[in-house]
Amino acid sequence: MNERHVDLEILRYDPETDEEPAFQTYRVPCQEDWVVLDAVNYVKDVLDRTLSYRWSCHMAVCGSCGMMINGEPMLSCKAFVRDMPDRIRIEPLANFPIERDLVVVTDDFMDKLASVKPYLIPREEKAIEDGAHVQTPAQLKKFKQYTLCINCTLCYAACPQYAHDQNFTGPAALALAHRYNLDSQDVGRGAREDVVASNAGIWECSFVGACSDVCPHEVDPAGAIQQTKIASTVDYFMGLLTPERDR
Amino acid sequence: MEFVQYHPTGLPGTGILITEGSRGEGGILVNKDGYRYLQDYGLGPPDPWPRNKAMELGPRDRLSQAFWHENQKGRTIDTPHGDVVHLDLRHLGEKRIDECLPMIRDLATSYVGVDPVHAPIPVRPVVHYTMGGIDTDIDAKTRIEGLFAAGECACVSINGANRLGSNSLTELLVFGARAGLGAARLAEAEVSHADEAAIREQAAAGDRVGRLFRNTGGGESVAGLRREMNATMESGAGIYRTEESLSRSCAVMNDIRRRYADVVLEDKSNVYNTDLIQALELDAMIDIAGAVIVSALARRESRGAHQRLDHERRDDEAYLKHSLAHYVAGEDPTIDYRDVVITRSEPGERVYGGAHK
Questions:
Q1: A28, A132: one domain
Q2: CATH label of the domain that carries residue B233
Q3: Once rounded to an integer, what is the mean pLDDT over residues B324-350?
Q4: How far, rounded to the nearest angstrom, does the alpha carbon of residue A141 sit from its chain's CA centroid?
Q5: B178 assigned to some structural domain
Q6: A32 interfacial to chain B (CB closer than 8 Å)
């Protein structure tokens, strides 16, 4: 199998010993079918065991190996070395604090996910004896795309609004709220409105669309946010016209 | 622990799974001659297809075993990442593939450079799921007071010697919920009390980490030992086993366990130290590998994912039992047994292919 030597410039940072992050370069013999994660694993296994990064599935499902690769947020398990130049610059995902090397602190993202009440809020509880919850394929199709999110946070690393203001609820969390709002089994749109339509919610999005460009599963959070803006506006005016209406 | 499921259709090299759904839609498995070889292994006749419990929709253990036999007969295809057979979806057409199997098209195109619309996908059995695990009851309780387990790490015994696809969802959603609720109930009900024995055990565990940090001699590498472990488990305790192959792997694993004492951490940081995490994981995997081998050696029969070339028949008389492996520090685990409780489904002959209809 053909080997090609690639220089990986990896941003290193250990808060115990380093004043600030600095690049370290590793020369890696890469095979033709390798992804960047394979090259990083080579560094870890052969060249330098002190390198820290997250990864698990190696098939773009778990969402844990996101990195800035030549300035672009990507899943390193889906970024093929064959598509890259001979020098590859690898940094932790932008817009997050660095915990260590390529590992970022995702607490803010996790809090934001929870803030949109990402679970079904049913009209009424249904006992197990009352049978299954029925949903037609057409009803499922309305929101299925938004269930495909793997929480990889690439969209937060790409989002200029989140870079500008960390209070912004952000693409994945707003798309997730939209997923539940569109679910025929859910009546929680009103309960989510406090966060979704707040001054940190949908209206802060300037529709650059970078989130949808980098999404590895084509969830299209930008589209979700624009649809939510319309739904929220309709809700607002309906509320003015019929104040007693239950949202 | 001797029951380890091979998924019959993973991509060579990466082991990425090509879902059963692609065979459910009508994908066929063929050997290097383009022949649907599963009909030679009690899974035929090939037509009509697809139909349940026949040919490509046979159970995972049988399909993986059929691959092994084809490989022995020299009818598989040689690639740089090992021998493969072909999963052919071409007859489904582009529209159906895009509609029903978009992720499969994406994975195959990206990772092996094969567009299933135009070419068959190279696949081979890959290690997939451990049916055994930490012994739990129906409430996900383990034998250790206050410790609950759910998911692949646990064995609540909804899988037998083989496992049906998607059963992991039940393990996670049903028993995960039971574990969480049970743990919460216990935490609410129990007045916490100082358990001296438990505190001493925790202190010993802390010392295990300290010892790894302090170790300077030897210079064994985690990655090196892990590779050797993978190789010996695949060759000696894989799809087919024998007394001889298992004994050989047992000796290798004992050697690896001894050498583990010489693992040296390069990374001494207290922050997100994955060198330490991988060393601890390897330690645990060495114990698990030991449990797989020793329970497989003791089970002198063939059942589901445990196939012994030297004991080819299933023996319900002697082995309709759960193997229980008990940890012994620094040595092979000891094995004893618990009877399988039969409720609604009596164990029967496993017949596939529709010959019984």
A1: no
A2: 1.20.58.100
A3: 92
A4: 21
A5: yes
A6: no
The answer on A111 and A100 residing in a single domain is: no
CA-CA distance, B87 to B105, in Å (whole number)? 12
**How high is the pLDDT of residue B226?**
96
DSSP letters for B204-229: HHHHHHHHHHH--SS-B-HHHHHHHH
Q: Which residue of B has its CA nearest to A80?
A: B110
Q: Is the Cβ pair B274, A46 closer than 8 Å?
A: no
Closest CA to B257 of B299, B228, B300, B298: B228
* B-chain residues near A78 (CB < 8 A): 110
* A89 plus A123 within the same structural domain: no
pLDDT, one tens digit per residue, over B3-58 is: 999 999 999 988 999 999 999 999 999 999 999 999 999 998 998 888 889 999 99
Assess whether B34 and B147 both reside in one domain: no
Q: Is the CB of residue B86 less than 8 Å from the CB of residue B123?
A: yes
Which range marks the domain in which residue A222 is found? 107-241
For residue A60, the domain's CATH number is 3.10.20.30
Residue B7 annotated among the catalytic residues of the structure: yes
User: How much is the pLDDT for B345?
Assistant: 86
Average pLDDT over residues B123-144: 95
- B133 and B152 in contact (C-beta within 8 Å)? yes
In degrees rounded to 5, what are phi and psi of residue B280? -65, -40
Write out chain A residues lying below 8 Å of B269, CB-based: 14, 16-17, 50, 100
Nearest by CB to residue A58, choosing from B14, B222, B270, is: B14
From chain B, pick out residues whose CB is under 8 angstroms from the CB of A15: 271
For residue B181, being part of any structural domain is answered with: yes
In a domain, B147, yes or no: yes
Residues 6+ apart with CB under 8 A from B153: B133, B134
Q: B96 and B162, same structural domain?
A: no
Q: What confidence score (pLDDT) does residue A243 get? A: 67
Residue B194 maps to a domain: no
Is B23 a residue of the active site? Answer: yes
Whether A178 is in a domain gets the answer: yes
Residue A2 pLDDT exceeds 70: no
How far is B16 from chain A, CA to nearest CA, in Å? 6
A56-85 pLDDT per residue, tens: 999 999 999 999 999 999 999 999 999 999
Domain assignment of residue B77, given as a range: 4-129
Report the SS3 class of residue B336.
Answer: strand
pLDDT tops 70 at residue B357? no
Q: Kind of pairing, strands A98-100 and A103-104?
A: antiparallel
Q: Which residues of B fall within a CB distance of 8 Å from A59?
A: 14, 16-17, 107, 111
Is residue A46 one of the residues assigned to a domain?
yes
Tell me whether residue A86 is in a domain. yes
Residue-level pLDDT at A188: 93
Q: Residue A19's pLDDT is what?
A: 96
**What's the structural domain count of chain B?**
3
How do residues B265-280 score in pLDDT, each as one tens digit?
999 999 999 999 999 9
Residue range A116-139: average pLDDT? Answer: 92
> Which among A46, A50, A59 has CB closest to B107?
A59
Does some domain include residue A246?
A: no
- The reply to whether B23 and B171 lie within a common domain is no
The confidence score (pLDDT) of residue A244 equals 62
Out of B17, B80, B223, name the one closest to residue A45 (CB). Answer: B223
Task: Name the DSSP class of B92.
Answer: G
* Cβ separation B269–A17 shorter than 8 A: yes
For B167-171, B213-217, B332-336, which range has the lowest pLDDT when averaged over its residues? Answer: B213-217
The distance of B113 to chain A (nearest Cα, Å) reads 9
Please list, in sequence order, all residues whose beta carbon lies within 8 angstroms of the beta carbon of residue A16, skipping any fewer than 6 positions away: B269, B270, B271
